[in-house]
Amino acid sequence: MKIESFLNSFLSKLSICIHECDCFSRAFCRQWTLMIFLFLGTGSLSMVLSQDLETQDFASLLDESKKLLRKNSDESLKLAEQAKLLISNRESAQYLEAILLISSNYQNISKYNKADSLLNEAETIAETQEFEELLAKIYHAQGLTYQFKGNNELAFDKYKKALEINERIKNQFEIFRQLNNIGLILREEKQYDKALDYFVRCETLIGELGNEEYAGYVKVNLGYILMELDDWVGAKEKFLEYINNKKIHVDSFHYATGLYLLADSEFNLKNLDAAKNYAEASLSRSKSIDFAMGQIYASRVLCNIYTEEQNYRRAEKNCNQAIELVNKHSSKIYYEDVLESQLILKKAQKNYQGALAIQETLFQRLDSINKIKFEQKIANSTLQYEIDRQDQETELLKLKNTQGQRISFFLH
Question: What secondary structure letter does DSSP report for 111?
């Protein structure tokens, strides 16, 4: 009894010691301690210690993996997979937690099919074992995977399932996550009024939860919807609230994003000087932190501003810079936006041949599936640009005659 009491006390102290070690040291300590217990003939205690240390190793690996999730997906993935290997019971909650983290890493590195396969396995286990809260998280992760793959219908279905569970168990933060992502799908599907309702609910809920960081993200999403509804005053207000959020650091990509969104709002409100200041500030900050998206969007807004001011040389410079960045980073998120800005520039320059080429590229991207619709749009554009070209030639002829008369008058 004395030996067992001593060993129990030793076990307790050692567990604390091991918990504070790194992963390698813990593994070494575990093997060393098990050898001591086996030598003393206390096999049952060694089994308890093994399970305790396994849990601690798992928790530590999972924690380290989560810290690296947004910084180094490759390293985070390795740690999550190591944690998964420690769990022998494939129907346990810990096993599902590891799968969820592994799938998040696969999503980060665009391996959506691998994430999908793992999550389907996790869904079956969670349903069988009736892990309701984990099942809701799995549904949400599946929704993300489908959304990344462009299948909004399936994503919407998974988010709704997650939302139903979380509303039943009153998990407010998870409810917020589902409302936000459903709102993003509705925005993408151009159902702006419905999306607005979801984001207003998000704003109210996250305000009640007191999470300032996520409150800032909701401001941006609301601002985007208000932009689509042509409420530029409302959008500007939300973007100002966003960059004034205490959680948004001035040297972060979040701040640079808020600046170029404000630039876009001011441009559409015809406040060109304010728009230029915001866009240049966004471009400068984006360059300093190597934020490609910020540089692309800020350059695009500057192109629009200089086109409006008829400073076509600077407009072209910014537009070309945006296109170069899109190609360099293989980033297609803002490609259509940049092309549309270039199209406006070409039209303003009366370069109808250049405008038609850009219009063709846009239509090919938007209507590649429907060839008839695509060809009809090109025909319509060609006709319109030909009419514009003829009108331009007429105007030039009038101008030439007028200039001749003025010169003649001046000489007389």
Answer: -
Residues of 313-330 as b/e, b for ≥16 C-beta within 10 angstroms? eebbebbebbbebbeeee
CA 256 to chain centre: 15
Asked if the model's pLDDT at residue 141 lies above 50, the reply is: yes
Q: Other C-beta atoms within 10 Å of 308: how many?
A: 15
Which residue type occupies 230?
D
Give the pLDDT score at 336: 80
388, HSE (Cβ side, Cα atoms, 13 Å): 16
**Model pTM above 0.85:** no
CATH class of 249-332: mainly alpha
Instruction: Find the angle CA(205)-CA(207)-CA(213) to the nearest 5 degrees.
Output: 110
pLDDT at 22: 42
The residue among 242 and 45 whose pLDDT is bigger is: 242
Query: Cα 272 to the chain's mean position, in Å?
Result: 29
Architecture in CATH for domain 171-241: Alpha Horseshoe (1.25)
